[in-house]
Amino acid sequence: MILQRLRAETSRNHAAIESLMPVLDPNISLTTYNQLLNRLLGYYAPLENLLRTKIEVYWPDQEYLCIERAKVPLLERDLRAIGKGFALTERCTNLPKLNTPAQVLGCLYAIEGATLGGQIISKHLLANLGLGPETGAAFFHGYGTNIAFQWQTFRLFLIKNAEPMNQDDEIVVSANETFKTLSLWLFPESMDKSEVKFQFDTSSQFLARPTCLALEGTHIS
Ligand code: HEM
Question: What is the rounded distance in angstroms from the CA atom of residue 9 to the CA atom of residue 110?
Answer without folding.
Answer: 12
